[in-house]
Amino acid sequence: MTQRKLKNSNLVFFILAFFPVVKTITMPSILAKYSSEGCLVSAISLLLCDLLLTYAVMLANSYRQQPLENAIEQKYGKVIFRIFYLWYAIYFILKSFLFCCENALNLQANLYDTAPSILIFVPFFIFSFYACVSGIKSFFKCSAILCVLSISSLIFIFALTFTQCKWEDLLPLFNRPISNYSTAIKHTLFWFDDGLYLLFISDYIEKKSATTKAVISTLVSSSITAIFIAMFYSVFSFIAPVKLYAATQMSKYGVINSNILRFDQFAYLIIIFVNVFAISIPIIIASDCLKKGLSLKSKYISPLIINLLLALVIIFMDNKLNVYMAFLYKYLWHIVFFTGYVLPIIVILPLYKPVSTNGKTDAAEA
């Protein structure tokens, strides 16, 4: 029985809902730490790489006539098939761990007056387990409302922040050594390579016009991220590196806030809510990759393994989450670059070829 495909509009909402919000917590401060006023240059460089990755993945998908797993197994064999999916399972687990760390620290720092137990974050893994069992298609179906929430909350933060911006602090853009920009790029790679998600979820999307819509949506998402980073640095300038939780910090001085009520907190709480879904995405994909790599029959085993592993690691590393988080983005960037940008291209270039049908290819409709 042919699986029903989701509409391209679901893909548009998915990208706009989830891709910008995961970059609104600690990533802007890390960029500012290493490249100062050049943080916008580093961010745009990464966003352009993401845009190219998205285009390559979606264009290759438009040529494909069979599911990704079947195409890989048929082209490379069973052993490479298993290695490929197990490698990406490990990669997405590491990516998930980084996101879980920053969100757990964010909750502890901004939603409580006293330092709470890390156990406040444990309920997330119950939701994540349910999401893994339900599959990524369930996120596509609710992405429309989450897109509205995500974009509206960011626009609200932009509106509150705009009057506080000192745009001259972003100049000159190229006043730092090249090594500063490259270091900033290396240390924030984990927050990018969003096009990699599309490699694993493209089987659920209609092929017609998917490439165009994915690229345009990614361009809009990237623009939102670039504006966010520019406003963040223009507000805090040289103290931006110590403002670890950008989304809650940059709008706190808005003119409508008062000692009694911070109106920006409404937008911030919405971002936290959408982030619950956003950081579940790599966990879902990791679960699916582990299931395929180990040829597991039950849909419950791989979600249970991954969520239990992440929960235990988060609990036992409670007091050192920031240390392990820094270790991931500082010293594993080689793995991120290879897995996120190089390996997908190596795999899809020989894998996908246009198939002629009456002189036309499926890619012609992309």
Radius of gyration: 20 Å
The largest pleated sheet is described as:
none
Helical stretch count?
16
Distance between the termini: 25 Å
Shape summary: globular
Helix/strand/pairing category: mainly alpha
- The proportion of residues in beta strands is under 5%
Average pLDDT confidence is 85
Uncertain residue segments: 361-366
Proportion of helical residues: 55-70%
Q: Order of helices and strands, N to C? A: HHHHHHHHHHHHHHHH
How many extended strands? 0
Question: Secondary-structure map with pairings?
Answer:
Elements lengths: L7 H11 L8 H9 L3 H25 L4 H9 L1 H33 L12 H12 L2 H26 L15 H10 L7 H7 L8 H27 L9 H4 L14 H15 L2 H13 L7 H16 L4 H11 L1 H19 L15
Helix pairs in contact: 1-7, 1-10, 2-3, 2-8, 3-8, 3-9, 3-10, 3-16, 4-5, 5-13, 5-15, 6-13, 6-14, 7-10, 7-12, 13-14
Label this structure with key terms.
mainly alpha, 366 residues, globular
Description of the molecule:
The chain is mostly helical and 366 residues long. Helices cover 67% and strands 0% of the residues. It contains 16 helices and no strands. It has helices at 8-18, 27-35, 39-63, 68-76, 78-110, 123-134, 137-162, 178-187, 195-201, 210-236, 246-249, 264-278, 281-293, 301-316, 321-331, 333-351. The two termini are 25 Å apart. The model is unreliable at 361-366 (pLDDT under 50).
